[in-house]
Queue: 4 jobs
Job 1
Amino acid sequence: MKELNKEQQEQQEQTKKRKKWVLLLLLLLLLAGVGYSLYHVFGQKPKENVTVISGDFLPKGKDAKKMSEQEIEKFAQKKVDDSKFNMMIGATAKIDSQTQEGTLNIKNPQTNAYPVNVVITDDKTGDVLYTSGAIEPGEEVSHVQLEKTLAKGTHPATARFSLYDAKTKAKKGEVAAGVGFIVE
């Protein structure tokens, strides 16, 4: 009987060991499953949609032709002509001391590509004496009304020509010239 009990005890112990091993194996599988799930839920970056564009190839020429040397020169000359600017303003203006009106020739030649605005300032005080407003190519100003009263005498001034793009109205540049106002 003791032997039977001993055999039964050994079998029970082996059964307990097997149960422990099975339980340990199940626990490891459970931990591996939880770890794998957590990795996929929290560890991966979100997938980004990628647009695949099939490759296009340059088609063969159809209507294009090579530009001649004359056409290239004409195109280049037009670019140079568009960048030129000639300012024309009289060196002196005669102004009536009573009315503060007088003659001053300001021209924007037809050959210019840009409209201009002319602002004339007193060299001594910096005050604006005259503003022309827009002068388109081919237009001129010959009669001026001063915006600031000047005393009799000669007053040196500076005329600033601001050039503007005809389409966008954006300022393209500025040039200046000296002018003398003779108030009589």
Note: The helical segments are 2-43, 69-83.
Job 2
Amino acid sequence: MKRVPRRLLIVPAATTLLAAAFGLILPANAQTFSSSYTSSAPKDCHTIGKPEDSNGSTTQVCPGKSGLVVLISVDDLRETVSVGPNRAAAAKEPAAETWFAPFNSTAHTVEWRAVDGRPFAIIQRWLIADNNALDKTGSPTTKPMLAVTRLPPGPVCHVAYIDGQANRNPNELARQAADEFARDFNCGKDEVKVIGEKGAAVSLAKR
């Protein structure tokens, strides 16, 4: 039988000890990021007001995560989206006063970004009307954009915009922006970040 040199036996043992040491340290400091989803479709929300009102305004209160609700307000074909423990609280947040000049709407899926099970941001897909790009019927086409919104504790406000057409991986960029910026974002002081390439949707939203 061929003898293995003694010096070769020492390295695996030392490596095992180092791995064990790091194994004890890393789980204590590691954070687990995850996504879950809720619906903001009218059938899943409590609608306040009637679409046939003269100004077309409606308000929807949709169930969220961790005791939070999503407040979606529509006025003159423009939406605002806010989050809070209840409708009244959500209506007082900066996000409830943040709207885009072009006509716009949101998709009916809300992505909740969480760390260790605690949500800290939502990601939503917006469709922004482009009056300079008309379809065959003469109506404005829409351009997709993802918006990242930070959640309590602290104010609720937009953190980042990601253009849905100019970037090949907008969903991943939105999650990365949420994970890196949302929790430390200072509403009212920090400027909303444009992540990735700036395309038509972001340009329209930022006017």
Note: Helices lie at 6-29, 87-91, 170-182, 200-205.
Job 3
Amino acid sequence: MLNMQFDKRVIIDTQSLDWQPSPAEGVFRKPLAREDAERGHATSIVKYVPNSAFSLHQHPMGEEIFVLDGVFSDEFGDYPTGTYLRNPPGTSHAPFSRLGCTLLVKLHQFSPNDTHQVQTNTRDAEWVDGQGKLKMLLLHEFNGEQVALIRWPAGQHFFSISHFCGEEVLVLSGEYRDEFGHYRPGTWIRNPHMFEYNPYAEEDTLLWVKVGHLPYPKPL
């Protein structure tokens, strides 16, 4: 198991990790959290080299993808940089990439009864005003879980932010900061239930953010 203690804060600079092979030739990954080698809960950065492919397979507990660069494809379409995908439990596909791509991939993490299939090209979607001077592009929402892109302008500070059932952040561009450190593009952060911190940015920063989805700790 890897980073399966959800009551702990995890910070990983994915740029410093080595690529590891997957079962498919030409497809590599950087595991961030994993329950088992090839099944169960998993969060990874995944890379397809040009003209690589995975064979047809099913996702019995769902798959969530954000295309970080390149063009990801399957038999249903092509998904360029900035595309957000949700393939609910029971769906199947045969993914590939002609040009190569890099993805954030989350497996086996759908809420019960969440059967929404989502395909959103964020480059064409509408942003709205968020808290303070933030801009937000909502990608998915279900039963307290929310996924969004956040544009964090230079100079925006917040104090004592915390999230019920935790938070995940992937820094896409700029530099995210808090009282504990500075986080460059490619940094993945997982904050546990109600973890308090004071985030800010000294330059324009873009984040992928997911909140309200981590296991709720049982009372002692």
Note: The chain has a mean pLDDT of 94.
Job 4
Amino acid sequence: MTTEDLSGETPEHPQDLARAGSSPVFRSLALDSIPVPDYADVIVVPVPAGRPSDPRIWAETLFSPQSMPAWVTALMGLRQALVGLVGINRARAGVFDVAGVRGEEALISVDDTHLDFRCGVAYDAGARLLRVTTAVRLKGWRGRLYFAPVRLLHPLVVHSMMVRAAARLHEPRA
């Protein structure tokens, strides 16, 4: 995906002026792995200064139980209780472990009977932006049934986890 300002107007911010002649290109390991997803989203949040730049740390913090609001933890528990009723495996421990890191992005990769899930967690230290890219390939009716409610809540869940992860990474280490 590329973007380009075709309006001919002068950018009002200095950083926009510096980039006015370029066309940024968006890439993600998640979309490299599933280039034609059934579902995809990209969520970006600005992060205050003083946070680590290692994408593995961001991914591990983002998916830690401490970064999940209580309502997300409750939804995950409900998921674990209900998925067996339609023949979907319960999530195993470590399901959101980092599969690899390339450049500024960590990749979480999960393949199951009902869907394939990729999540790229990237941190742009220069712009202080945290970006989470999700790509999902659904498999059969179980995948479509499972993902129907998830599709609605996914952006809210991810955004809240990102905000909590940014706050946690600023806390002094014990």
Note: Residues 1-7, 13-19 have pLDDT under 50 and may be disordered.
